Each structure stands twice: as structure tokens, then as C-alpha cells.
DNA sequence: TAGATTGTTAATCGATTAACAATC
DNA sequence: TAGATTGTTAATCGATTAACAATC
């Protein structure tokens, strides 16, 4: 897993999906798989799978295919799931709590070490193994524990100011659930925007589009 | 808004973002905007914005630009946000509850009319204006109310069976939060997959990649 | 009218697919 | 060895960007 250097984002975004399908295969006891068979299951082309994997090295063997367990492990290493970077979550409302409770951050390369909110009725609440802390203490916390990444589950109105504060405190990656779109403003900062409403609106378009076609066809 | 027909998914996925930025502009009282200025704010090219919009019609005026309010409204119509289609949510765990509580479905083209779960300790729980119903009653409910779309927030193990059941009951669109990847298996069914763990893993890759570069540079 | 900015066509770029020699 | 399947190069396709005439 050495060949990389400027691998395109389209390829990177497919890696977690490969990882997931390979985990499924392991669960069902499959030990080897060809790019052709994997492409059939994932709805891709075999060519694309081979191209994608060869950005990082030759994990397969001619005439045999890929070893499922090995490939799963290699992709995990490429994604960086083997080490845990410290992360904090800011905004312990419904979405924030759901994420803190539902995600095993340690399986995804992170260690969730702090949860913050400004609402006195939420501060002190136990969420999994962590207790919600007062957001006023974020500065001190960051200076001590140096989180690399922040999950931003605050309302839109608080997002901009909080993002800037965290960037100054050394946070360089954001998993952003707020409606605030800050990828443009701070170059160099890594942002993975999760605009759930954008996703739902896209589905809305597709559903409308389908019913229009059905109407025309009848 | 008549020109469409096979507009690419890449374009569609940008529409909700335009919609959001235009809403922001309205909020700050801006009444007109050029593709150039909008491109600067959104981090796109002006060319792309004009190309995107012209898939659906000429909303601008030479020498003037676009009327913010009109463009916002037109994009809303293109996305289909003006009518509400009935939707249900299946799986009222942490994520399901957070979504039901946080999203104003009516603003995104849907009307959330039912929430279901199988867990007796959750059934009957009040979530916003709805009460969680027993999933055993989904068949009867669908035959009566004909939801077009289902939000799938069930665990992976329950997802496949539930998806098939709902497809048979006439549900044709899914907002899928489960780890189950069913876009491949049921052609014709519209699926918007929200694989949050894929998103977090992508961020993991980016953060690792950045620190490797920093290490090299020093 | 002059300046600005669109709508649209043409050029470029990047990503996907196809093909095939290498090789297990 | 023969068959299968990779790694990789070349061809195709689609999406983005640039250019510019039309026009408000």
C-alpha cells in the first residue's frame, strides 16, 4: 500500500464501500473473489475495481483473483482505520447524541474523547461513556488533548463561529452536519459535509421525476 | 422549468446546494446575483452554474444576472419541493428519532405520516406529532395511506427484509441509513443511500493523508 | 449607447470502460 | 499445460471549463 500520491477523490469515496462489501464476504465465509464477481455484486465494472485498487498496489493474483481478508485489511490500512486520532463532538442535540451513540468511532479511525454543548439542560448528560461538557471549556480541552477532528452537530447559527474557534485551536478536519457550508472559506481545512437535507431533496427530485415518467407512459 | 429530460445526476445533486445558498442570499436581503459572484461564494465556476441552470431553462437576464428570489423558487419547483408526498420512517432508534425530530420533511417535499418499530419499549413513544406504531401494522398502514417513500433507519440485519416488504407494498423511494446496500438488487427502485460511516472513513483518509504530507514537508 | 452578463457552442480535462499481454 | 484473471495501456465517454456572440 505504497503507490498512492494524488489519488482522485472519486476513487477514495469508493474505498469504504469496497471495505464494507469485503467485510460482508468475510462474514459469509468467502475467502477469494475476482474483480468480475465483486463488480457484479456491487454494480460496478470489473475494470473500475481493478483500476481503483491499482492506485495503491497490486493486491491480486493473476488467475486467482483477490484474497478477501487480505484485501479488506489493505483497504483498512489505506483508509487509515488502524490508528485512532482524537476527535470531539460539538452540539449534543438530537443528531449529535444519535451519532455519538450509534457510531463506533474506533472502527472508523477515530477516538471520541469529548462531547460539548452550551445548553445547561444538556451539559452533564451521560452519552455512552462520555459526559457532555460545557462548550465554554473547549479551548482548555483542546489545548490539553489536541483533537484533530471535530464532529459539528450544532445549529447553523452557531456553526461559523464554532468552526473558526476550532480551526484556531488546531482542529484540521470537520465532519460537518450543520447547514453551514464552510468548505469554501477555509482552504486547507478538511471538511466532509453531510448535508442530509440535500440528500433528501435529491431523493425528492428522483421520486417526482419517476412519477412524471409513469404518468407519461400511461 | 420545462427543458429537462435526462439531466445528469451530478447536476441534480448540486441543485439543493444552489437552493441553500440562494436562501442565504434572500436572508441577507440580496435581490440579484451574477453567476460570477455566486460561483465565488460557492467555490464553483460561473460556467458550471450557467450550464447547470440552463438544463432547465433560462432563468437569467443578460447584463443583469439572476433574480435571487425567482431562482430560488424555480429550483424549488425543479426539485419538487412544492408538493408533499407521503413518507414513513421505519426504525425509531437513535438515528430514526433524531431524523424525525430534526427534519422539517414538509420543506423537503415530503409529509411524514407514520413511524414504525418492532421494539415494544419504543412502540407508543411520542416523536414530534407522531406516535411510534408497531411495525407489524405496516402492511395495513401502507394499503390505506400509500406512502411513496420510506426512511430506513433500521439495523443492517433487518434492512433487507424490510426493504423487500415495503417495495411489495408500493414504496418506490428509500432514504436509506442502514448499512445495507440495496441499490443494486432492486432496479427501478430509487435509493438515496446515506452511508454515514463511509463518509467518516473518507474524512479519516483525508486527515491521514494530510498528516503524511505535513510529516514529509518538515 | 456602452457595459455587463447571459445562453450556448466548442475545447479540454478527467474518469470510466475496453482490450490484451503478462502470469499465476 | 490450459484456463482464469490480473495489472496496465489505450479508447471512449461524460462532465467541466473556456470562449464568445446575443442581448438586456
UniProtKB/TrEMBL annotation, chains A, B:
Compartments it resides in? Cytoplasm
Q: Where does the CoA-binding domain start and stop, copy by copy?
A: 80-181
Q: A single Pfam family, by name?
A: CoA_binding
Can you say what this protein is called?
A: Redox-sensing transcriptional repressor Rex
Q: Which GO terms describe its molecular function?
A: DNA binding; DNA-binding transcription factor activity
What does UniProt list as this organism's lineage?
Bacteria, Bacillati, Bacillota, Clostridia, Eubacteriales
Q: Which family does it belong to?
A: Belongs to the transcriptional regulatory Rex family.
The entry's function note states: Modulates transcription in response to changes in cellular NADH/NAD(+) redox state.
Q: Which organism is it from?
A: Ethanoligenens harbinense (strain DSM 18485 / JCM 12961 / CGMCC 1.5033 / YUAN-3)
Q: Which GO terms describe its biological process?
A: negative regulation of DNA-templated transcription; response to redox state
HAMAP family assigned to the protein according to its UniProt record, in alphabetical order? Rex
- Read off the InterPro entries from this record: CoA-bd, NAD(P)-bd_dom_sf, Rex_DNA-bd_C_dom, Tscrpt_rep_Rex, WH-like_DNA-bd_sf, WH_DNA-bd_sf
Q: Which PANTHER family match?
A: REDOX-SENSING TRANSCRIPTIONAL REPRESSOR REX (PTHR35786), REDOX-SENSING TRANSCRIPTIONAL REPRESSOR REX 1 (PTHR35786:SF1)
